[in-house]
Amino acid sequence: MGALILAQSLLLNAESLDYAGWKSRAEQLMGEHRSERSRNVTTPWDQKDKAAQAGEAWLAAARQCQDPALRFQALEQAALAFGESRSSLGNAQLLALTEARDLKGASQADRARVALRLARVTRKRADYEAACGFAGAAPEVRGEAYHELALSYLLEAKKDPALNVPLAENYEKAAAAFAGLDLGRAGVEVGQAQLAAENIPDRKRAVATLDRLYQTQLSYSNQQSPLGQAMVRLRWADALERLELVDRAQTLRRELGKSATTPLDQRQEAWIKASEAEVKRKQPGQALKDLDQARLLRLDNYVYIEKIAHKQIEVLYSQRNLEGIAAAWQQLAAHPKASPQQRDENRLKQVRWLRELKRQSEADALLDSILAAPGSPQALARACEMKVEARLDAKDYAGALQEIERLTPRLPQPATGLLDLKGRCWAAQGKEAEALDFWEKLHRHPSGSIVPSNVMITALESLYREHLAAGRLQAAAALKARAKNWVVQDILHDLWEAEYCLAAGDKAAARAAIDKARGRLSRFSGSPRVQLEKRIEGLAGKP
Q1: Average pLDDT value for residue range 437-464
Q2: How many CB atoms within 10 Å of residue 2?
Q3: Pair 434, 421: CB distance under 8 Å
């Protein structure tokens, strides 16, 4: 009765009208309110606007009406009018909505709809629970009520994991309500429930809830295609793995991988995920078996086989299985669908690992075959460089220079990468000045600035550290000063300065240079940043 008491105290006139009279007055006032609003007419702050007056009139109409349906309608209209008002009492709308929600004899579907509106105004969990309690609610209203009740637990569940139980339950009920109307929306609600279920502290309950949710999703008519079923099962396996039920997850994945009715993409994904899980639990042998099963699915597709080969090589590298890595690159190079460029790129990588295995004659023979019929200019250039690098690694500087002279005419000019190695030969022979002069000439930009290659920077750092280690501080300082004119990242100058100061025993200056380097790290990301961080920490840890 609170709303009716409020109406009695606020009504503009004390005259006695019946239901029809108050209804007519309310409709007239709302019409005037909307007309004023369209004309931007404002009401003085100390007066009620027409919407507030209309709300009061609707409440008076409800007071005069015994028919539950008409009374409910009047209360709902009162709430709408108060909602549009800028001058009605703050609780007027809530009182009207509350009375409409609790009106016995009114339609349960209508009461549920108003209950949800009330809950959205109050944001109280108890009001959302009341909205969920109407058995006769329309499915979309019930679904929204359960969805918003779930949201009321969302932030608290981050602090109290036990609240993931009602969070998951309410999302699940929302999904059930939407399932007959919109399976896309139902799937979203189930997905939210699945995420909450993974965070339920009671592991047994979490698993039981997840299993039920994924079984529900598998039953949806829009998931009955082989693709839909496979995608749901893959997500199910991922969830099980996150709950540390790896054996169950692997069983599910391998069943999908073997299923002839499952689309190839999902079979491939199942085997790859199975291999990744085995890598995590340090079972590289099984990971390689799973990848081999994946490889067999599309033997004639180079792009796919390349993807699998790269994953196999990652696993082999973790085992330090160099023989396996070299064989994997050889197998990929031999694929019938590999282009000449792809073939040679893989063969060049094979050469690298043959060198690691000290199988120099095989590596040389492979390089010679690439040089005889290169698949691309890039492959030719890299093969030439690798041929020379092998001589350099063997300290055969004269032989390296001969190879450069022999191979340079085969490359488009300027053959910068190959010529860079000439500077390395001179530097390794102690001809530091000649090497630096040559490199600076080779890498001088038309503007006059020197933009060094990685080979040139690496060689400079090697020479620089040799001088520092031998105590030749003056020679190191000269190199450092010379590099000031090169276009390189400022952080390199900081690192070189720190190395010099440490060698000179000036710890304060070294710390200052290291701090400057740290301050520049934000400009980098990924692998380059990791490498720079290691260098900085290595210098910072030196006595």
Answers
A1: 92
A2: 13
A3: no
Alpha helices in 183-225, H assignment, sequence order? 183-198, 203-219
Nearest Cα residue to 92 out of 49, 129, 126, 132:
49
Q: How far is CA 372 from CA 261, 376, 384, in A?
A: 47, 12, 11
**Burial (0-12, 13-18, 19+ Cβ within 10 Å), 464:** buried
Q: Which amino acid is at 355?
A: R
Q: How far apart are CA 448 and CA 160, in angstroms?
A: 64
Gap between the Cα atoms of 203 and 198, Å rounded: 9
Between CA 257 and CA 247 the distance in angstroms is 15
Question: Burial letters for 243-254: b for 16+ Cβ neighbours within 10 Å, e otherwise?
Answer: bebbebbbebbb
Nearest to 104 by CA among 75, 138, 77: 75
| CA distance to 191, 262, 270, per residue, from 165 (Å) | 15, 33, 30
Among 64, 71, 55, smallest CA distance to 17 is for 64
pLDDT (tens digit, 9 = 90+) per residue, 74-124?
999 999 999 888 876 668 899 999 999 999 999 999 999 999 999 999 999
- Neighbour count for residue 16 (Cβ, 10 Å): 9
The string of DSSP letters for 13-24 reads: ------HHHHHH
Which single residue is written with the structure tokens 């929204």? 144
Task: Report the distance separating Cα 325 and Cα 316, nearest Å.
Answer: 6
- For the four alpha carbons of 257, 262, 264 and 268, in that order, the dihedral sign comes to negative
Tell me which long-range contacts 510-519 makes (C-beta under 8 A, separation of at least 24): 510/539, 511/540, 514/539, 514/540, 517/491
Output the pTM of the full model: 0.76
